[in-house]
Amino acid sequence: xxxxxxxGIAKPLTLPCGATVKNRxxxxxxxxxxxxxxxxxxxxxxxxxxxxxxGGAGVLVTGNVMxxxxxxxEPGNVAVEDGRDLNxxxxxxxxxxxxxAHCWMQINHPGRQSPITINQHPYAPSGGKLEGDYGxxxxxxxxxxxxxxxxxxxxxxxxxxxxxxAGFTGVEIHAAHGYLINQFLSPxxxxxxxxxxxxxxxxxxxxxxVFDAVRExxxxxxxxxxxxxxxxxxxxxxxxxxxxSFSGFDEKESIWVMKxxxxxxxxLIDISGGxxxxxxxxxxxGAVEDRRRGVYFTEFARRVKGELTVPVxxxxxxxxxxxxxxxxxxGITQMIGIARPLALVPDLPKRIIRDRWDGSVDLPWVTTxxxxxxxxxGGILVISWFELQMNRIGHGKRPDPRIGGLRALCFAIGKxxxxxxxxxxxxGHQ
Length: 430
Fold this sequence. Notes:
Blueprint: E1 13-14, E2 20-21, E3 25-27, H1 43-54, E4 59-61, E5 65-66, E6 78-79, H2 86-96, E7 102-108, E8 123-124, E9 142-143, H3 146-166, E10 170-175, H4 180-185, H5 200-203, H6 205-218, E11 224-229, H7 251-264, E12 268-272, H8 287-293, H9 298-305, E13 312-315, H10 321-330, E14 335-338, H11 340-344, H12 348-353, H13 371-394, H14 405-416
Parallel strand pairs: 3-4, 3-14, 4-7, 5-6, 5-7, 7-10, 8-9, 10-11, 11-12, 12-13, 13-14
Antiparallel strand pairs: 1-2
Protein backbone atom coordinates (compact mmCIF):
# COMPACT_ATOMS: atom_id res chain seq x y z
CA UNK A 1 0.00 0.00 0.00
CA UNK A 2 1.34 3.44 -0.84
CA UNK A 3 1.44 6.51 1.39
CA UNK A 4 -1.67 8.00 -0.17
CA UNK A 5 -3.99 5.14 0.79
CA UNK A 6 -2.30 4.08 4.03
CA UNK A 7 -4.87 4.40 6.83
CA GLY A 8 -3.93 6.75 9.65
CA ILE A 9 -3.89 3.90 12.15
CA ALA A 10 -1.06 2.25 10.17
CA LYS A 11 1.22 5.28 10.02
CA PRO A 12 4.32 5.46 12.23
CA LEU A 13 4.72 8.13 14.92
CA THR A 14 8.00 9.66 16.04
CA LEU A 15 8.01 10.65 19.71
CA PRO A 16 9.75 13.75 21.12
CA CYS A 17 12.66 11.59 22.37
CA GLY A 18 13.30 10.42 18.79
CA ALA A 19 11.93 6.88 19.10
CA THR A 20 9.48 5.80 16.40
CA VAL A 21 6.50 3.50 16.91
CA LYS A 22 5.36 1.57 13.87
CA ASN A 23 1.63 2.30 14.05
CA ARG A 24 -0.98 4.02 16.20
CA UNK A 25 -2.28 1.02 18.16
CA UNK A 26 -1.56 1.59 21.85
CA UNK A 27 -2.36 -1.46 23.96
CA UNK A 28 -3.31 0.19 27.25
CA UNK A 29 -2.57 -1.29 30.64
CA UNK A 30 -4.66 -4.08 32.10
CA UNK A 31 -3.72 -5.88 35.30
CA UNK A 32 -2.80 -9.32 34.01
CA UNK A 33 -2.99 -10.82 37.56
CA UNK A 34 -0.41 -13.39 36.48
CA UNK A 35 2.25 -12.91 39.16
CA UNK A 36 2.42 -15.18 42.18
CA UNK A 37 3.08 -14.27 45.80
CA UNK A 38 6.69 -13.51 44.90
CA UNK A 39 5.50 -10.64 42.62
CA UNK A 40 7.69 -11.97 39.81
CA UNK A 41 6.81 -12.09 36.10
CA UNK A 42 5.92 -15.53 34.77
CA UNK A 43 5.93 -17.65 31.65
CA UNK A 44 2.31 -16.60 31.21
CA UNK A 45 3.41 -12.96 30.87
CA UNK A 46 5.85 -14.04 28.17
CA UNK A 47 3.23 -15.95 26.15
CA UNK A 48 0.58 -13.24 26.55
CA UNK A 49 2.85 -10.42 25.38
CA UNK A 50 4.32 -12.49 22.56
CA UNK A 51 0.77 -13.06 21.33
CA UNK A 52 -0.05 -9.36 21.50
CA UNK A 53 3.21 -8.33 19.83
CA UNK A 54 2.62 -10.75 16.98
CA GLY A 55 -0.92 -9.36 16.78
CA GLY A 56 0.43 -6.12 15.36
CA ALA A 57 0.16 -3.35 17.99
CA GLY A 58 2.64 -0.49 17.84
CA VAL A 59 2.96 -0.10 21.63
CA LEU A 60 2.18 -2.60 24.38
CA VAL A 61 1.89 -1.12 27.86
CA THR A 62 2.15 -3.64 30.69
CA GLY A 63 -0.23 -3.83 33.59
CA ASN A 64 0.74 -2.26 36.89
CA VAL A 65 4.33 -2.96 37.90
CA MET A 66 4.71 -1.78 41.47
CA UNK A 67 7.86 -0.07 42.71
CA UNK A 68 7.53 -1.62 46.20
CA UNK A 69 6.60 -5.26 46.69
CA UNK A 70 5.12 -4.48 50.12
CA UNK A 71 2.69 -2.01 48.51
CA UNK A 72 0.56 -3.75 45.87
CA UNK A 73 -2.56 -2.40 44.22
CA GLU A 74 -4.13 -5.70 43.16
CA PRO A 75 -3.61 -9.43 43.57
CA GLY A 76 -1.19 -10.75 40.99
CA ASN A 77 0.80 -7.51 40.56
CA VAL A 78 4.41 -7.71 39.41
CA ALA A 79 6.79 -5.66 41.54
CA VAL A 80 10.27 -4.56 40.48
CA GLU A 81 12.51 -2.95 43.08
CA ASP A 82 15.84 -4.66 42.34
CA GLY A 83 17.44 -7.04 39.86
CA ARG A 84 16.29 -10.34 41.37
CA ASP A 85 13.90 -11.12 38.48
CA LEU A 86 16.03 -9.63 35.70
CA ASN A 87 16.23 -12.82 33.63
CA UNK A 88 12.46 -13.25 33.49
CA UNK A 89 11.99 -9.52 32.89
CA UNK A 90 14.30 -9.87 29.89
CA UNK A 91 12.20 -12.71 28.52
CA UNK A 92 9.02 -10.67 29.05
CA UNK A 93 10.52 -7.65 27.28
CA UNK A 94 11.84 -9.77 24.41
CA UNK A 95 8.40 -11.28 23.88
CA UNK A 96 6.69 -7.88 24.00
CA UNK A 97 9.06 -6.34 21.46
CA UNK A 98 8.69 -8.99 18.76
CA UNK A 99 7.40 -7.95 15.36
CA UNK A 100 8.73 -4.39 15.79
CA ALA A 101 6.48 -3.57 18.75
CA HIS A 102 7.41 -1.28 21.60
CA CYS A 103 6.82 -2.69 25.07
CA TRP A 104 6.57 -0.13 27.86
CA MET A 105 6.49 -0.98 31.55
CA GLN A 106 3.80 0.86 33.50
CA ILE A 107 5.28 1.75 36.90
CA ASN A 108 3.14 2.60 39.89
CA HIS A 109 2.63 2.87 43.65
CA PRO A 110 -0.91 2.32 44.99
CA GLY A 111 -0.77 4.59 48.02
CA ARG A 112 -3.86 4.00 50.17
CA GLN A 113 -5.50 2.09 47.31
CA SER A 114 -4.02 -1.22 48.43
CA PRO A 115 -6.53 -3.86 49.65
CA ILE A 116 -6.34 -4.87 53.30
CA THR A 117 -6.19 -8.53 52.26
CA ILE A 118 -2.72 -7.94 50.82
CA ASN A 119 -1.54 -4.86 52.73
CA GLN A 120 -2.51 -3.77 56.24
CA HIS A 121 -0.09 -0.83 56.27
CA PRO A 122 -0.69 1.42 53.24
CA TYR A 123 0.68 4.92 52.80
CA ALA A 124 -0.88 8.08 51.42
CA PRO A 125 -0.19 11.83 51.16
CA SER A 126 -2.50 12.32 54.16
CA GLY A 127 -4.38 10.12 56.62
CA GLY A 128 -7.98 9.13 55.94
CA LYS A 129 -9.62 5.99 54.64
CA LEU A 130 -11.35 5.54 51.34
CA GLU A 131 -14.92 6.80 51.56
CA GLY A 132 -18.14 4.98 50.82
CA ASP A 133 -18.88 1.30 50.47
CA TYR A 134 -15.30 0.50 49.47
CA GLY A 135 -13.77 1.79 52.70
CA UNK A 136 -14.07 -1.54 54.54
CA UNK A 137 -11.76 -3.19 52.02
CA UNK A 138 -8.83 -0.87 52.78
CA UNK A 139 -6.81 -0.16 55.92
CA UNK A 140 -6.32 3.32 57.34
CA UNK A 141 -3.23 4.74 55.59
CA UNK A 142 -0.29 6.43 57.25
CA UNK A 143 0.68 9.87 55.97
CA UNK A 144 4.07 9.79 54.24
CA UNK A 145 7.00 11.68 55.69
CA UNK A 146 9.11 13.80 53.36
CA UNK A 147 11.90 11.24 53.71
CA UNK A 148 9.53 8.46 52.64
CA UNK A 149 8.37 10.54 49.67
CA UNK A 150 11.97 10.91 48.55
CA UNK A 151 12.44 7.14 48.90
CA UNK A 152 9.43 6.46 46.65
CA UNK A 153 10.77 8.90 44.04
CA UNK A 154 14.01 6.92 44.12
CA UNK A 155 12.05 3.67 43.76
CA UNK A 156 10.31 4.88 40.59
CA UNK A 157 13.72 5.74 39.11
CA UNK A 158 15.15 2.35 40.09
CA UNK A 159 12.26 0.44 38.54
CA UNK A 160 12.55 2.46 35.33
CA UNK A 161 16.30 1.83 35.17
CA UNK A 162 15.75 -1.93 35.56
CA UNK A 163 13.01 -1.86 32.90
CA UNK A 164 15.44 -0.32 30.43
CA UNK A 165 18.18 -2.79 31.39
CA ALA A 166 15.76 -5.69 30.84
CA GLY A 167 14.94 -4.54 27.31
CA PHE A 168 11.64 -2.75 27.72
CA THR A 169 11.58 0.11 25.23
CA GLY A 170 9.80 2.68 27.41
CA VAL A 171 8.02 3.29 30.69
CA GLU A 172 4.68 4.81 31.60
CA ILE A 173 4.33 6.54 34.97
CA HIS A 174 0.86 5.88 36.38
CA ALA A 175 -0.50 9.17 37.76
CA ALA A 176 -4.21 8.37 37.42
CA HIS A 177 -7.06 6.23 38.82
CA GLY A 178 -6.66 7.14 42.47
CA TYR A 179 -3.21 5.61 42.95
CA LEU A 180 -0.49 7.41 44.91
CA ILE A 181 0.55 10.10 42.42
CA ASN A 182 -3.11 10.86 41.72
CA GLN A 183 -3.67 11.08 45.48
CA PHE A 184 -1.01 13.78 45.69
CA LEU A 185 -2.64 15.66 42.81
CA SER A 186 -6.11 15.58 44.38
CA PRO A 187 -7.06 18.27 46.92
CA UNK A 188 -9.58 15.81 48.35
CA UNK A 189 -6.85 13.28 49.18
CA UNK A 190 -3.89 15.60 49.73
CA UNK A 191 -4.33 17.81 52.78
CA UNK A 192 -0.64 18.37 53.42
CA UNK A 193 0.61 21.78 54.50
CA UNK A 194 4.26 21.29 53.50
CA UNK A 195 5.89 21.65 50.07
CA UNK A 196 3.83 18.72 48.71
CA UNK A 197 0.38 20.15 49.53
CA UNK A 198 -1.76 23.22 48.91
CA UNK A 199 -2.15 24.66 45.42
CA UNK A 200 -1.69 22.60 42.27
CA UNK A 201 1.93 23.68 41.86
CA UNK A 202 2.75 22.02 45.19
CA UNK A 203 0.39 19.04 44.82
CA UNK A 204 2.05 18.25 41.48
CA UNK A 205 5.56 18.42 42.96
CA UNK A 206 5.66 14.68 43.68
CA UNK A 207 4.73 13.80 40.09
CA UNK A 208 7.33 16.19 38.70
CA UNK A 209 10.02 14.80 40.99
CA VAL A 210 9.11 11.26 39.91
CA PHE A 211 9.17 12.22 36.24
CA ASP A 212 12.51 14.04 36.50
CA ALA A 213 14.09 11.14 38.41
CA VAL A 214 12.82 8.61 35.87
CA ARG A 215 14.04 10.72 32.96
CA GLU A 216 17.49 11.00 34.54
CA UNK A 217 17.54 7.23 35.13
CA UNK A 218 16.70 6.24 31.54
CA UNK A 219 18.23 9.09 29.54
CA UNK A 220 16.85 11.52 26.95
CA UNK A 221 16.27 9.02 24.10
CA UNK A 222 14.10 6.54 26.02
CA UNK A 223 10.29 7.00 25.87
CA UNK A 224 8.69 8.17 29.12
CA UNK A 225 4.89 8.45 29.11
CA UNK A 226 2.52 9.58 31.86
CA UNK A 227 -1.01 8.29 32.43
CA UNK A 228 -3.01 11.21 33.82
CA UNK A 229 -6.63 11.76 34.76
CA UNK A 230 -8.54 14.34 32.78
CA UNK A 231 -10.27 14.74 36.14
CA UNK A 232 -11.05 12.54 39.12
CA UNK A 233 -14.79 12.75 38.47
CA UNK A 234 -16.39 10.14 36.20
CA UNK A 235 -17.71 11.12 32.79
CA UNK A 236 -21.05 12.94 32.90
CA UNK A 237 -20.91 13.31 36.69
CA UNK A 238 -20.92 16.99 37.62
CA UNK A 239 -21.37 16.77 41.39
CA UNK A 240 -20.13 14.36 44.00
CA UNK A 241 -22.13 11.70 45.81
CA UNK A 242 -22.99 14.07 48.66
CA UNK A 243 -24.64 16.56 46.32
CA UNK A 244 -21.96 19.24 46.64
CA SER A 245 -19.62 20.71 44.08
CA PHE A 246 -16.83 18.48 42.82
CA SER A 247 -13.57 19.48 44.51
CA GLY A 248 -11.06 16.94 43.27
CA PHE A 249 -8.37 17.14 40.60
CA ASP A 250 -10.19 18.82 37.70
CA GLU A 251 -9.75 19.41 33.97
CA LYS A 252 -8.19 22.86 34.35
CA GLU A 253 -5.56 21.50 36.71
CA SER A 254 -5.02 18.47 34.49
CA ILE A 255 -4.24 20.63 31.46
CA TRP A 256 -1.84 22.73 33.54
CA VAL A 257 -0.02 19.57 34.68
CA MET A 258 0.14 18.31 31.08
CA LYS A 259 1.75 21.56 29.95
CA UNK A 260 4.36 21.30 32.67
CA UNK A 261 5.11 17.70 31.73
CA UNK A 262 5.49 18.77 28.12
CA UNK A 263 8.09 21.35 29.18
CA UNK A 264 9.90 18.63 31.13
CA UNK A 265 10.12 16.39 28.06
CA UNK A 266 7.33 13.84 28.38
CA UNK A 267 6.96 11.72 25.25
CA LEU A 268 3.26 10.87 25.46
CA ILE A 269 0.30 11.59 27.73
CA ASP A 270 -2.20 8.78 28.19
CA ILE A 271 -5.55 10.43 29.03
CA SER A 272 -7.80 8.70 31.53
CA GLY A 273 -10.14 9.53 34.41
CA GLY A 274 -11.93 8.45 37.58
CA UNK A 275 -10.80 6.89 40.86
CA UNK A 276 -11.78 3.87 42.93
CA UNK A 277 -14.29 5.97 44.88
CA UNK A 278 -15.62 7.52 41.65
CA UNK A 279 -15.10 4.73 39.11
CA UNK A 280 -15.30 5.42 35.42
CA UNK A 281 -17.56 2.50 34.58
CA UNK A 282 -19.96 0.82 36.95
CA UNK A 283 -21.76 -1.56 34.60
CA UNK A 284 -20.99 -5.02 33.27
CA UNK A 285 -23.14 -4.65 30.17
CA GLY A 286 -20.34 -4.69 27.58
CA ALA A 287 -21.42 -3.63 24.08
CA VAL A 288 -24.67 -2.16 25.41
CA GLU A 289 -22.67 0.32 27.50
CA ASP A 290 -20.24 0.92 24.62
CA ARG A 291 -23.03 1.92 22.24
CA ARG A 292 -24.60 4.19 24.83
CA ARG A 293 -21.41 5.99 25.72
CA GLY A 294 -19.10 5.91 22.70
CA VAL A 295 -15.41 6.83 22.91
CA TYR A 296 -14.22 8.08 26.30
CA PHE A 297 -12.81 11.58 26.97
CA THR A 298 -13.51 12.87 23.46
CA GLU A 299 -14.57 16.34 24.56
CA PHE A 300 -11.61 16.70 26.91
CA ALA A 301 -9.27 15.56 24.13
CA ARG A 302 -10.67 18.30 21.89
CA ARG A 303 -9.86 20.85 24.62
CA VAL A 304 -6.33 19.50 24.93
CA LYS A 305 -5.78 19.53 21.16
CA GLY A 306 -5.11 23.26 21.05
CA GLU A 307 -3.05 23.28 24.25
CA LEU A 308 -0.36 20.65 23.65
CA THR A 309 2.06 19.50 20.98
CA VAL A 310 3.11 16.30 22.80
CA PRO A 311 1.42 13.14 21.47
CA VAL A 312 -1.71 11.97 23.28
CA UNK A 313 -3.15 8.48 23.66
CA UNK A 314 -6.93 8.28 24.01
CA UNK A 315 -8.15 5.03 25.54
CA UNK A 316 -11.62 3.64 25.97
CA UNK A 317 -14.54 2.82 23.72
CA UNK A 318 -12.68 2.23 20.45
CA UNK A 319 -14.30 -0.85 18.94
CA UNK A 320 -13.95 -0.36 15.16
CA UNK A 321 -11.62 1.16 12.58
CA UNK A 322 -14.04 3.94 11.64
CA UNK A 323 -14.00 5.50 15.11
CA UNK A 324 -10.23 5.11 15.27
CA UNK A 325 -9.65 6.83 11.94
CA UNK A 326 -12.10 9.61 12.82
CA UNK A 327 -10.25 10.39 16.07
CA UNK A 328 -6.89 10.43 14.27
CA UNK A 329 -8.23 12.57 11.42
CA UNK A 330 -9.64 15.11 13.89
CA GLY A 331 -6.27 15.28 15.59
CA ILE A 332 -7.72 14.71 19.05
CA THR A 333 -5.36 11.80 19.61
CA GLN A 334 -2.18 10.46 18.06
CA MET A 335 -2.44 6.95 19.52
CA ILE A 336 -5.52 4.73 19.74
CA GLY A 337 -5.71 3.11 23.16
CA ILE A 338 -7.15 -0.41 23.15
CA ALA A 339 -7.43 -2.75 26.11
CA ARG A 340 -10.36 -5.12 26.65
CA PRO A 341 -10.90 -5.91 22.93
CA LEU A 342 -7.33 -7.26 22.79
CA ALA A 343 -8.15 -9.78 25.50
CA LEU A 344 -10.70 -11.24 23.08
CA VAL A 345 -9.13 -10.45 19.70
CA PRO A 346 -5.35 -10.36 20.31
CA ASP A 347 -4.57 -9.76 16.63
CA LEU A 348 -7.06 -6.91 16.17
CA PRO A 349 -4.36 -4.45 14.95
CA LYS A 350 -3.22 -6.88 12.27
CA ARG A 351 -6.80 -7.53 11.17
CA ILE A 352 -7.53 -3.82 10.80
CA ILE A 353 -4.22 -2.80 9.17
CA ARG A 354 -3.39 -5.82 7.03
CA ASP A 355 -6.82 -7.27 6.32
CA ARG A 356 -8.73 -3.94 6.34
CA TRP A 357 -11.32 -5.52 8.64
CA ASP A 358 -14.15 -3.04 9.15
CA GLY A 359 -16.23 -4.89 11.74
CA SER A 360 -16.73 -4.03 15.40
CA VAL A 361 -15.59 -5.83 18.54
CA ASP A 362 -18.68 -6.32 20.68
CA LEU A 363 -17.78 -7.03 24.27
CA PRO A 364 -20.10 -9.46 26.05
CA TRP A 365 -22.51 -8.74 28.86
CA VAL A 366 -20.68 -10.41 31.75
CA THR A 367 -23.14 -12.06 34.12
CA THR A 368 -23.22 -14.83 36.69
CA UNK A 369 -26.86 -15.45 35.89
CA UNK A 370 -27.75 -14.34 39.42
CA UNK A 371 -28.84 -10.71 39.66
CA UNK A 372 -27.81 -10.35 43.31
CA UNK A 373 -24.28 -11.56 42.52
CA UNK A 374 -24.06 -9.29 39.49
CA UNK A 375 -25.01 -6.29 41.63
CA UNK A 376 -22.62 -7.25 44.41
CA UNK A 377 -19.61 -7.93 42.20
CA GLY A 378 -20.33 -5.94 39.02
CA GLY A 379 -16.96 -4.21 38.55
CA ILE A 380 -14.93 -7.06 40.06
CA LEU A 381 -16.86 -9.52 37.93
CA VAL A 382 -15.83 -7.77 34.72
CA ILE A 383 -12.19 -7.42 35.76
CA SER A 384 -12.02 -11.10 36.75
CA TRP A 385 -13.60 -12.13 33.45
CA PHE A 386 -10.97 -10.31 31.39
CA GLU A 387 -8.18 -11.53 33.65
CA LEU A 388 -9.40 -15.06 32.96
CA GLN A 389 -9.19 -14.40 29.20
CA MET A 390 -5.62 -13.11 29.56
CA ASN A 391 -4.78 -16.14 31.70
CA ARG A 392 -6.04 -18.38 28.89
CA ILE A 393 -3.82 -16.61 26.34
CA GLY A 394 -0.91 -16.87 28.77
CA HIS A 395 -1.41 -20.62 28.89
CA GLY A 396 -1.48 -20.93 25.11
CA LYS A 397 -5.27 -21.15 24.81
CA ARG A 398 -7.69 -19.06 22.79
CA PRO A 399 -9.93 -16.49 24.47
CA ASP A 400 -13.43 -17.82 25.03
CA PRO A 401 -16.22 -15.20 25.11
CA ARG A 402 -18.75 -17.90 26.07
CA ILE A 403 -17.31 -18.22 29.59
CA GLY A 404 -19.78 -17.04 32.22
CA GLY A 405 -19.26 -14.59 35.03
CA LEU A 406 -19.58 -17.19 37.80
CA ARG A 407 -16.68 -19.15 36.38
CA ALA A 408 -14.64 -15.93 36.26
CA LEU A 409 -15.33 -15.22 39.94
CA CYS A 410 -14.39 -18.79 40.89
CA PHE A 411 -11.20 -18.46 38.86
CA ALA A 412 -10.24 -15.23 40.65
CA ILE A 413 -10.89 -16.65 44.13
CA GLY A 414 -9.06 -19.86 43.28
CA LYS A 415 -6.01 -18.02 42.01
CA UNK A 416 -5.79 -15.15 44.51
CA UNK A 417 -8.02 -16.10 47.44
CA UNK A 418 -10.65 -13.79 48.98
CA UNK A 419 -8.47 -10.76 48.16
CA UNK A 420 -9.61 -11.12 44.56
CA UNK A 421 -13.04 -9.82 45.61
CA UNK A 422 -11.71 -6.50 46.94
CA UNK A 423 -12.74 -3.56 44.77
CA UNK A 424 -10.29 -2.60 42.06
CA UNK A 425 -10.36 0.34 39.70
CA UNK A 426 -11.23 -0.68 36.17
CA UNK A 427 -8.13 0.99 34.84
CA GLY A 428 -7.37 0.26 31.28
CA HIS A 429 -10.14 -2.34 31.03
CA GLN A 430 -11.57 -0.19 28.29
